[in-house]
Amino acid sequence: MNAPLKSLDLSFSNRPDTSGPIPLAGLTRQQLRDVLIEHAGVEEKKAKMRAEQLWRWIYHFGVQSFDEMTNVSKDLRKVLSETFTLARAEIVERLVSVDGTRKYLIRFAPGVEAETVFIPDVGKSGALCVSSQVGCTLNCTFCHTGTQKLVRNLTAAEIAQQVMIARDDLGEWPTSNEDRQITNIVFMGMGEPLYNLDHVSDAIDVISDGDGIAIGRRRITVSTSGVVPKMTELGERTKAMLAISLHATNDPLRDELVPLNKKYNIETLMDAIRAYPDLSNAKRVTFEYVMLKGVNDSPAEARALVKLLKGVPSKINLIPFNPWPNSPYECSDWETIETFADIVNRAGYASPIRTPRGRDIFAACGQLKSESVKMRASEKRKLERGEASSG
Ligand code: SAH
Ligand code: SF4
User: Fold this and answer.
1) Nearest ligand, CA of residue 138?
2) Does the beta carbon of 192 lie inside 6 Å of ligand 2?
3) Which pLDDT score, from 0 to 100, does residue 98 have?
4) pLDDT more than 70, % of the chain
5) What is the pLDDT of residue 250?
């Protein structure tokens, strides 16, 4: 093969093509420095300082115009605005629930759409649920994303932009604004984060940086279905909190619900969890357990769960199953969930049931996109029939 011409690596960019201004929102410090040198003619020795200046405007103040960058010379601002953009990806759907949950469907490129959900908690805190991939290669049988093919991994910039977009919408700039509600980030949207670890890790660097968005690493949780070989690396690179989608306490059932279990069984998974860096009572693993009627919800299974987690600093999150069209399961009855929760509670795990949020806007992580697509289709049909939109 001939020596390749030096071509620009735009793999971090979210541009559907290479025309038009380069988006800066979501880039890492290194990427910012690189694009300033390559595209704005900034000298190498000054690039670091310039990147620092821009970093603060982009991630602390959340500005969307270069004119606001008052400590940057007019001439450079002109070059920047001709070369780059501070715009975010497009929100194609935004729904606000009566309980304050907000759901966004974001289009990063044609056919590349992912969902982000803001889940308010008590008081001023709340979690933003972000996606790491569009679709998923795994096929957990209770998960709607699992029925969708993987479209592609999201880039670090696209993941970080989900946080920026939600902050724009909630009016949370600058970071020093004390009324901020997004205090935690959970990677529990679409996709398997550990199959996109490089970008997830870079995105966490951006989101947690103290001079910018400043959401601490202890407030960032990455959920995995159990990609054992990547778990230690996740802990070492990101220092994030770990969540495990367990859902079953024996291999035959977990093989069925989370097919990845055939590759990394429960014993292997538990070993990897015990080896997770810095695990302690202050840094517990969250075990997610979806409540499926007649499948995994018996008192015996609750006891098996307690037994399995013995000695592992853990929290348990019981998730009422959120049904989707033609899903092969039903959510357990409330009484069954309470009985299960009681057993788990008595073993020392506090308030483990995750209350369903934003049901009116289909806001359960992992199934928003499909519902939105369906809703848009039904809205369209209504319009075609000449009926008024229900909004
Ligand atoms: N792929 C990762 C992260 C995304 S899924 C993982 O599997 O952990 C985030 C969480 O939502 C997982 O615990 C998943 O099991 C859960 N989930 C998926 N579909 C669900 C549904 N229909 N009802 C309730 N929880 C669901
Ligand atoms: Fe993928 Fe997680 Fe859904 Fe399983 S539960 S299909 S790993 S998104």
Assistant:
1) 2
2) yes
3) 87
4) 86
5) 98
Is the backbone of residue 22 left (phi > 0), alpha (psi -120 to 50) or beta? beta
Ligand 2 centroid distance, CA of 5 (Å): 40
CB 301 less than 6 A from any atom of ligand 2: no
Q: Which atom of ligand 2 is nearest to the CA of 137?
A: 1
Q: Does 22-85 carry CATH code 3.30.450.20?
A: no
Q: For residue 321, which ligand has an atom nearest its CA?
A: 1
Ordered by start, the domain boundaries in the chain are 22-85, 90-376
Q: Tell me which CATH code domain 90-376 carries.
A: 3.20.20.70
Residue 227 CB less than 6 A away from ligand 2: no
Q: Using CA atoms, how far apart are residues 246 and 125, in angstroms rounded to an integer? A: 26
Which one is predicted more confidently, 162 or 350? 162
Q: What predicted TM-score, i.e. pTM, was given to this entire model?
A: 0.89
Torsion sign over Cα 74, 79, 82, 88: negative
Supply the pLDDT for residue 361.
67
Does 22-85 match 90-376 in CATH topology? no
Strands 184-187 and 241-245: unpaired
* Cβ–ligand 2 contact at 366 (below 6 Å): yes
How does pLDDT run across 22-60, given as a tens digit for each residue? 999 999 999 999 999 999 999 999 999 999 999 999 999
Nearest ligand atom owner, CA of 222: 1
Point out the residues that are catalytic. Answer: 115, 365
Give which of 91, 89, 90, 93 is closest to 376, Cα–Cα.
93
145 lines ligand 2 (CB under 6 A): yes
Protein residue whose Cα sits closest to atom 8 of ligand 2: 191
Residue 18 binned pLDDT confidence (cut-offs 50, 70, 90): low
121 Cβ neighbours under 8 A, 6+ residues apart: 127, 183
State pLDDT tens for residues 237-277: 999 999 999 999 999 999 999 999 999 999 999 999 999 99
